C-alpha cells in the first residue's frame, strides 16, 4: 500500500514538473520568435494589386548626417524614359569560364516583358517622384502557378546624382510558399530567394558604370545582378534636364552636383 502511494506521488511530481515546463515554453515562445525574426523594414506602398506591388522602403545605408549617402530623391522622370531604361536591361545565364569555353556565351534575354514594363514604367516614375533622400524604390512581380507556387521577379532602384542604381534580386524564380514560417519573397524584394544564376546587362553598354566586385560574388554569380547607369549617356537628355532644374530650385533635392 505504501509503495503504491509513493508511486502516485512520484507520478504527480513528474506531471507537475511537465506542466510547469509547458507553461514556461508557452510564455517564452513569443519572445523567442521575436528574437529569431528578421528586422522589419519600414515601407509605404505606391502601387499594389493582388500579385504585384511597387513601394518605398527606408535604405539603411543612408545616414542623415552624411550628405554623400543621400539619394537624389524626389526625382522627376517620365514613364517613357523609365520604359526605355527597362527595355535596355537584358538577362544572361551565368556561365563560368570553362562553360563558356565549351558552350560559348549564353543568349541575351529581355529582362522584362511588355506587360511588366507597362506596369513598372508608370509606377516606378511615380515612386521616384514621391521618394525622400533616405528611401529606395522596390518592386515585386509575380505569376501564380498553383496555390503554393509562383514565379517572381523582384528588385529595387534609387537615383544618386545622375546615376541610376538598379538591382535585380530575383528573376523569374519559382518560389514555393512554405507550409509554415515567414514568406520572404514579398517582404524582402531585394534579397534573393535562391542562388542567382544570371547576369544583368544593359544596352547601350557605354552608359554602364563598372562596379568592383569580390571573387566570392563572381563564384556565386552575384557580381552582375546590379547595374549603375549614367543617365547623362542615354539618348534622351530629359532626366538630366529635370535633375538640374530641381537642383537649381533647391539643394535639398541633390546630394551632390551632377557630373
Which properties best describe this structure?
34% helix; single chain; 7 helices; six-stranded antiparallel beta sheet; three-stranded antiparallel beta sheet; 2 domains
What proportion of the residues is helical, as a percent range? 25-40%
Query: What is the chain-wise order of helices and strands?
Result: HEEHEHEHEEEHEHEH
As residue ranges, the low-confidence spans are 25-36, 217-223, 244-259
Distance linking N and C termini: 95 Å
Number of domains: 2
Provide the structure class. alpha+beta
Strand content: 25-35%
Query: Strands across the major sheet, in which order?
Result: 1-2-5-6-7-9
Quick one: how many beta strands? 9
Number of helices: 7
Categorize the overall geometry. globular
Biggest β-sheet strands, sense, barrel: 6 strands, antiparallel
Overall pLDDT: 78
| C-alpha-based Rg, rounded | 25 Å
TL;DR?
With 259 residues, the chain is α+β, with helices and mostly antiparallel strands. The protein has helices at 2-36, 79-87, 97-103, 114-130, 184-187, 215-219, 238-249, and strands at 43-48, 53-58, 89-93, 108-110, 135-144, 149-160, 163-176, 198-202, 226-230. The protein folds into two domains: 1-37; 43-253, no CATH class.
Task: Explain the layout of strands and helices.
Blueprint: H1 2-36, E1 43-48, E2 53-58, H2 79-87, E3 89-93, H3 97-103, E4 108-110, H4 114-130, E5 135-144, E6 149-160, E7 163-176, H5 184-187, E8 198-202, H6 215-219, E9 226-230, H7 238-249
Antiparallel strand pairs: 1-2, 2-5, 3-4, 3-8, 5-6, 6-7, 7-9
